[in-house]
Amino acid sequence: MAVLNEEQEMLRDMAREWTVNESPVTEFRKVRASGEPEAFNRDAYATMAQMGWAGVIIPEEHGGSDFGFLSAGLVVEELGQTLTASPLVMNTVAASAIVLGGSDEQKAKWLPRLASGEAIATLAVDEGPSHDPAKIETSVSDGKLSGTKAFVHEAHGADLFVVAAKDGLYLVEKGDGVALTTRKLTDQRSHADVTFDGAAADKLASGGDSLLDDVLDRARVLTAAEMLGMAQQVFDDTLAYLKQRVQFNQVLASFQALQHRMADLFADLAQMRSAVEAGLQAVDGGFGVARAATIAKAEANRVMHTMANEGIQLHGGIGMTDEYDVGFYLKRARVLEASFGSSSWLKDRFSKLSGY
Amino acid sequence: MATQIEPATQTDEDAFRAEVQQFLADNFPDELKGTNNALSGVDGPTNETPAQKKWREAMGARGWGTPTWPKEYGGGGLTKAQAKIIDQEFAKAGAYNPIGGMGVMMFGPTLLEYGNEAQKQEHIPPICRGEIRWCQGYSEPNAGSDLANLQTFAEDKGDHYLVNGQKTWTSGGQWADKCFAIVRTDKSDKHKGISFMLIDMDTPGVEVRPITMISGTSPFCETFFTDVKVPKENLVGEEGQGWTIGKRLLQHERTNISGGGSLARLMGQSLGDIAKKYQPTGADGELADAVLRDKIADFEIRWNSFLLTARRAMEESKAAGGVSEISSVLKKLGTKLSQERSELLIEIRGLQGLGWEGDGFSDGELEAVRAWLFGKATTIYGGSTEIQNNIIAKRVLGMLDHQ
């Protein structure tokens, strides 16, 4: 855990207390059981916004706390631990696009509403099942945006889309010319293909050529923070299980073959945490962001992948049941691994950034 | 994570920085700029040039080779912030720290913690001056991973002990002046029968035989003790306390093997840059072998997150005023990744990366081969990776002792 200041420690402790008491995995089970496509609890999100979590990276003049991405990551990590279903990550990423690329008018119109939870925004970039920001067909003419975005996270709850078109990022409000096709994924969260057919679009004109990359890097580090919380929880649950399950008249935790696997996972988790925290801090520091965010998401993918698989295997048959939580983490893990950069895509980007 | 410098001390730090710059200008010989013979000077054969000797003596007199050790024993008596300034200024000037070796890395910190006043007065100052070379008498033929099984016996003879037995893997034993050893003083208790004592290597009955390794070098020795007299004042701590003291020393050793001390240097040259010299590239300047390119990126990302982890462990330890629990993973991660890097370097260079000797290979290529082979030892010594895993599982994760 990075060395935190007092504000950050308070924020993390508050998030931990709330998720453990008010939003344990049983709350996610309720969301799943409801079958609602938007797949989150509106009351819970309103509470989160009241606690200031929707505005952590939004400037104070626009109703946020401007604590930065490391702070946002602390909250997101806690939410990841209990699989809290909410649009908080996507709303934060979309808000960052407006902070970086919005005009004064756009900021004044949207940021206070996104910080208060009155409105929800999300990011729509990819047009196929694999992350590929170089392949965008969506275009704008006369202020009308057309194109189809695939597997948009939190599309059902969103009032506002930050949409990548060929010539930059645009704000598009849900309404005329915006149609959703629900795509139910294994994580049981909100995903939809979103078709824009001449929808009114307002360009984010101030962010420069790197705006899309900058926003995607923020998506990568926050997604990695959610995965960090998930990986930590799988590790903790698995360790606790090994300490209580008895076979051959011994607790499983006394078997050296299992001890060494847990030691490996512990080391992996340490690396993941270092990389994710460094990615969040790089965004706050504004230096070496592309590289740090690539490393953060690549390490999150690698470790989360192994952790989920090992979590199932070490739980044994019981880990395969719907009654146990570990399977939920596996399913959410794969969705996040594929979002905003698969491992092979990230390694390619790292090579390019390193000049080989 | 940003370590803020208190504004109030900023002027003090500027003044100290100027002091370091002046010291370098007055004492660091130009001809040594960019060289680093610190290790061979301390752990290797004695072959100091006059300039190297002058530099070592200047540093020793000032105590800056061991900057944070207490001044009364010859250390610098400086704060960590000041030590960092020394590092920074030395790096800028191309200067190295000539005071090093096992005395500095492992034995000194342990003796400062457990030694009595007379022992500290006798042994610490020569370490600070880089005058005495220490070696480690730990492993034995039947006490490797199971170190507490050691059998070298120190018999109580009133005013001295009579030591008989054999140590092995004694690093630099053939060049060492003194040995810190763990030996058995009580055969009835595996752990509580161990004591920590200091043995002069020129005492009659001490015999050292170098072991030739697969890398072709002999950095380790077998050390035999036959009726070696060790004065009672050379016992550190109490009789039976050797296992506790010895383990403490190993913590210092592991931090050093994992590279916790010198991260920037460990980062090394980008493997991608090296690969571009040995492997074809496409028009876009990217490596044409996509599989190799992926492997290199995969490694470098993990190498980066290891270095970040080492940094985090230091910061957490500093903030908490104790050892961070993730320090326990540094040795196993750092050694494994270093080995992987060596293997990748060979894959990148092909047979040109497996040269043993001759003009057809650059110094860098030849050194890499020896480093690759020698590097196999790093996951074995200092507590093997398997032992590290036991420690993590038991002490950090609270898993029960295996049978």
Automatic annotation (TrEMBL), chain A:
Residues 215-344 form the Acyl-CoA dehydrogenase/oxidase C-terminal domain. InterPro entries: Acyl-CoA_Oxase/DH_mid-dom_sf (IPR046373), AcylCo_DH-like_C (IPR036250), AcylCo_DH/oxidase_C (IPR009075), AcylCoA_DH/ox_N (IPR013786), AcylCoA_DH/ox_N_sf (IPR037069), AcylCoA_DH/oxidase_NM_dom_sf (IPR009100). Residues 5-118 form the Acyl-CoA dehydrogenase/oxidase N-terminal domain. Keywords: FAD, Flavoprotein, Oxidoreductase. GO terms for molecular function: acyl-CoA dehydrogenase activity; flavin adenine dinucleotide binding. It holds the Pfam family Acyl-CoA_dh_N. Its cofactor is FAD. The keyword Transmembrane helix does not apply. Belongs to the acyl-CoA dehydrogenase family. This is Acyl-CoA dehydrogenase. It comes from Parapontixanthobacter aurantiacus.
TrEMBL record, chain B:
Keywords: FAD, Flavoprotein, Oxidoreductase. SUPFAM superfamilies: Acyl-CoA dehydrogenase C-terminal domain-like, Acyl-CoA dehydrogenase NM domain-like. Residues 135-228 form the Acyl-CoA oxidase/dehydrogenase middle domain. Belongs to the acyl-CoA dehydrogenase family. PANTHER family: ACYL-COA DEHYDROGENASE (PTHR43292), ACYL-COA DEHYDROGENASE FADE29 (PTHR43292:SF3). GO terms for molecular function: flavin adenine dinucleotide binding; oxidoreductase activity, acting on the CH-CH group of donors. It comes from the Bacteria. One of its GO terms (cellular component) is plasma membrane. Residues 29-51 are annotated as: Disordered. The lineage of its organism: Bacteria, Pseudomonadati, Pseudomonadota, Alphaproteobacteria, Sphingomonadales. Residues 12-131 form the Acyl-CoA dehydrogenase/oxidase N-terminal domain. Residues 240-397 form the Acyl-CoA dehydrogenase/oxidase C-terminal domain. It holds the Pfam family Acyl-CoA_dh_1. This is Acyl-CoA dehydrogenase. Coiled coil: none annotated. Its cofactor is FAD. InterPro entries: Acyl-CoA_Oxase/DH_mid-dom, Acyl-CoA_Oxase/DH_mid-dom_sf, AcylCo_DH-like_C, AcylCo_DH/oxidase_C, AcylCoA_DH/ox_N, AcylCoA_DH/ox_N_sf, AcylCoA_DH/oxidase_NM_dom_sf, Mycobact_Acyl-CoA_DH.
